[in-house]
């Protein structure tokens, strides 16, 4: 395990007990057994460490649900069940950090944290909308944005039940119940509230597209971390193409497929699929 990862895991333990504000760099270095010098070689500040933890959590969460939605083997109510299952399993698996993230979002005045939360929220919207289009197509043309907010409401409220109230969790029952509710709303809702114009207004607030340069920076870091493999070779070729745009769409899609099932590359695959719009 790298020093950077040791610092992140130690900080997460302390943040879970004390929150972001009450935890100092000194406490983190003492808890991790790493010097302050080594800390500042990995992170410029505590705020940068916090952002790295949020990125790690949300990137994994988003790439997991994106993988479910874009798997051609998933369809109908089964897709809804798997979508909710992946959502709640992720919150359950990372419950300590999920609690911190939710609490800090509710009370923070940190603009960077607020902006990052909005950015990831919009990515979740995009994936959810893609799923709804697959399942219902034109039949929900006027209610699809309301459905997105209903689904996010389910995710938010029900996650609180087991994160903060220790309600016993039958994950399979919960996901089947929410899939049924979503089906009923999709098939029988007729009065929309959120219009196209209103939804676009929401999206413009704090919207931030990732640039090619930022994607290349993430790819370079991952290339350094990976051992020699087909995933590493594919990333090298994809990085070159983001810079030069010389490969055909079919080759690009094949290279992204090569990295997509590697859990360490799933976030990069998600970014590239959106960047190339394939």
From TrEMBL:
Keyword ATP-binding: no
DNA-binding residues (ranges): 24-43
Residue ranges of every copy of the HTH tetR-type domain listed in the record: 1-61
Listed SUPFAM superfamilies: Homeodomain-like (SSF46689)
Top-level taxon of the source organism: Bacteria
Signal peptide limits: none
Molecular function terms, GO-annotated: DNA binding
Keywords, alphabetical: DNA-binding
PANTHER family linked to this entry: ACREF/ENVCD OPERON REPRESSOR-RELATED, ACREF_ENVCD OPERON REPRESSOR-RELATED
Protein name per Swiss-Prot or TrEMBL: Transcriptional regulator
Lineage: Bacteria, Bacillati, Bacillota, Bacilli, Bacillales
């Amino acid at each position: 395990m790298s020093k950077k990862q040791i610092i992140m895991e130690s900080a997460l333990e302390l943040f879970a007990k004390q929150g972001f504000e009450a935890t100092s760099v000194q406490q983190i270095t003492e808890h991790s057994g790493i010097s302050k010098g080594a800390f500042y070689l990995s992170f410029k500040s505590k705020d940068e460490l916090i952002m790295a933890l949020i990125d790690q959590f949300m990137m994994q969460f988003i790439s997991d649900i994106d993988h479910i939605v874009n798997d051609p083997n998933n369809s109908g109510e089964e897709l809804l069940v798997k979508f909710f299952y992946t959502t709640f399993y992720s919150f359950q698996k990372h419950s300590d950090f999920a609690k911190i993230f939710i609490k800090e979002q509710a009370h923070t005045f940190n603009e960077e944290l607020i902006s990052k939360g909005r950015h990831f929220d919009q990515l979740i919207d995009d994936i959810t909308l893609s799923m709804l289009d697959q399942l219902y197509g034109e039949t929900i043309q006027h209610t699809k944005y309301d459905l997105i907010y209903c689904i996010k409401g389910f995710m938010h409220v029900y996650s609180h039940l087991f994160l903060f109230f220790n309600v016993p969790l039958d994950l399979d029952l919960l996901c089947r119940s929410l899939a049924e509710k979503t089906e009923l709303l999709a098939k029988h809702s007729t009065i929309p509230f959120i219009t196209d114009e209103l939804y676009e207004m929401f999206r413009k607030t704090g919207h931030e597209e990732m640039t090619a340069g930022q994607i290349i920076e993430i790819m370079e870091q991952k290339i350094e971390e990976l051992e020699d493999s087909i995933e590493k070779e594919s990333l090298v070729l994809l990085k070159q193409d983001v810079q030069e745009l010389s490969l055909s769409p079919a080759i690009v899609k094949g290279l992204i497929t090569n990295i997509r099932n590697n859990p360490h590359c799933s976030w990069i695959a998600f970014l590239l699929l959106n960047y190339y719009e394939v």
